[in-house]
């Protein structure tokens, strides 16, 4: 039985003929659709394209009121740094092949809902026609990277365009709201491979059972991503702790929208809801199907003989027990172009959740603690993104750092050092049914999973109650 969120969404669709994309109809079946690119969609859906142009899925940045040091700046993938693929500036588009002629990488644009051009602030016809509507709205759609022979520019095109127009037109008639499979084909592959980045968003969710994710289970709730994340005008609700921009600032997505504040009918458990997020007990582990990237060391190139390529040295883990921290919904971010200073333990924070035991607006949350190793300019103190695309082919880390420093800061021949970084990423998926949730002793025992002192307690708070 679907959630109340799904019912409300359906009523909204029936009443207004609009949802995430605002489409009047969810299929072009029966129409004489001859797909010639995004211009075909714009004939009926230009207003939807204009809305999408301003969204985070296209701009890769947005308002950032929940970044405590944003200073009013719009932030996102385009102008922030991470410890996975680092930043799009030096890595946007192009084909990198190994000595065997096998394609290794196509750039960050492979994950962008556009056709190859970088998003711009000014909305133009060219930018609207750069939107790839089918990547989110057409089942069976696939695209590949091609180089325009006349302009030598790289662009993403449907693989059937110019080869099988009948097949292309058939796909263009299969228009729908985004399904789980459509969302997961990008979000599960972030960071370079299946479940590398997020840890709790796996391909398994396309067709999983209750024990994998109680919300998306095909025999249970069978929810699509948009049933929680759909906003209006192509805005997507929800912001993880490590995301800079927001499509819906001030509109925080929580479990309590669908679940009661006292859902357990057990006073002791319901007492926890005030200071402990649902994810803590109901997501005991993540990365249950595909292992996830827990440490990415860019200072040490790793050669993969069989694949004939290089990568950073990555440490993968499966069935990972989350890290637990207080979080009030705000995050501190190490911005590019600002001097990075070490934390007390010597690491450099990239995304650090705000909150403490004394902060009554904070709750204990479950996180993936990702560790990295990145270059830092000795003089300026800036963390440096890298040109990682060519690095996949030759493993030349010096060139990768030089390309990143030039693209981000205009600095040639950077003098840098390697530093250890940390980044907390909220865990919100792979929710377990109640029967699989943590029990009291999982946390409240001598070998429990909580580090009470790190959370601001002198001892396990249960011991005080027992005494």
What does this structure look like?
The protein has 467 residues and is α+β, with helices and mostly antiparallel strands. It is built from 14 helices and 11 strands. The protein has helices spanning 4-16, 38-53, 56-59, 125-129, 134-137, 165-172, 180-187, 226-229, 267-272, 278-282, 388-394, 397-409, 440-443, 461-466; strands at residues 96-97, 103-105, 143-147, 154-158, 292-304, 309-317, 323-327, 331-333, 348-353, 363-377, 416-426. Strands 5, 6, 7, 8, 9, 10 and 11 form a 7-stranded mixed sheet that branches. A two-stranded antiparallel sheet has the order 1-2. Strand 1 (96-97) and strand 2 (103-105) form a beta hairpin. Helix 11 (388-394) runs antiparallel to helix 12. The longest helix is centred in the first third of the chain and has 16 residues, at 38-53. The chain is globular, with a radius of gyration of 23 Å. The model is unreliable at 1-24 (pLDDT under 50).
Which of globular, elongated, flat, extended, rod-shaped describes the shape? globular
User: How many beta-strand elements?
Assistant: 11
**Mean pLDDT figure:** 92
Helix/strand order: HHHEEHHEEHHHHHEEEEEEHHEHH
Number of helices: 14
Helicity, as a percent range? 10-25%
How far is the N terminus from the C terminus? 45 Å
Find the structural class using helix and strand composition.
alpha+beta
Q: Give the strand content.
A: 15-25%
Outline the biggest β-sheet. Answer: 7 strands, mixed
Cα gyration radius (Å): 23 Å
Low-confidence region ranges: 1-24
């Amino acid at each position: 039985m679907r959630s109340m969120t799904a019912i409300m969404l359906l009523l909204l669709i029936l009443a207004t003929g609009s949802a995430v994309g605002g489409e009047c109809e969810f299929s072009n079946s029966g129409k004489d659709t001859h797909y010639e690119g995004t211009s075909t969609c714009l004939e009926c859906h230009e207003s939807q394209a204009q809305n999408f142009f301003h969204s985070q899925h296209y701009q890769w940045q947005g308002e950032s009121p929940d970044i405590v040091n944003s200073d009013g700046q719009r932030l996102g993938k385009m102008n922030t740094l991470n410890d996975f693929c680092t930043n799009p500036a030096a890595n946007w588009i192009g084909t990198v092949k190994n000595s065997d002629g096998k394609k290794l990488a196509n750039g960050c644009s492979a994950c962008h809902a556009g056709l190859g051009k970088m998003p711009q602030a000014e909305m133009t016809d060219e930018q609207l026609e750069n939107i790839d509507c089918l990547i989110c709205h057409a089942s069976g759609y696939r695209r590949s990277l091609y180089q325009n022979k006349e302009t030598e520019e790289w662009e993403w095109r449907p693989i059937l365009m110019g080869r099988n127009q009948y097949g292309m037109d058939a796909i263009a008639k299969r228009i729908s709201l985004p399904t789980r499979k459509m969302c997961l084909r990008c979000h599960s592959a972030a960071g370079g491979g299946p479940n590398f980045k997020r840890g709790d968003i796996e391909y398994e969710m396309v067709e999983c059972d209750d024990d994998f994710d109680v919300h998306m289970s095909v025999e249970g709730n069978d929810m699509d991503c948009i049933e929680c994340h759909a906003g209006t005008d192509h805005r997507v609700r929800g912001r993880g702790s490590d995301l800079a921009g927001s499509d819906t600032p001030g509109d925080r997505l929580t479990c309590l929208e669908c679940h009661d504040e006292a859902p357990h009918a057990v006073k002791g458990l319901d007492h926890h809801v005030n200071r402990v997020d649902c994810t803590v007990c109901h997501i005991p582990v993540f990365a249950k199907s595909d292992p996830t990237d827990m440490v990415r060391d860019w200072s040490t190139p790793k050669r993969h003989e069989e694949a004939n390529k290089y990568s950073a040295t990555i440490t993968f883990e499966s069935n990972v027990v989350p890290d637990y921290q207080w979080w009030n919904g705000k995050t501190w971010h190490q911005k590019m172009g600002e001097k990075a200073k070490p934390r007390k333990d010597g690491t450099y924070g990239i995304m650090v959740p705000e909150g403490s035991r004394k902060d009554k607006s904070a709750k204990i949350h479950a996180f993936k603690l990702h560790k990295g190793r990145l270059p830092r300019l000795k003089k300026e103190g800036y963390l440096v993104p890298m040109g990682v695309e060519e690095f996949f082919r030759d493993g030349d880390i010096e060139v990768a750092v030089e390309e990143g420093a030039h693209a981000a800061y205009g600095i040639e021949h950077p003098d840098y050092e390697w530093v250890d970084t940390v980044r907390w990423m909220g865990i919100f998926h792979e929710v377990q049914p109640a029967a699989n949730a943590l029990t009291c002793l999982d946390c409240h025992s001598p070998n429990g999973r909580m580090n009470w002192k790190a959370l601001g307690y002198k001892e396990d708070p249960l011991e005080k109650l027992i005494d």
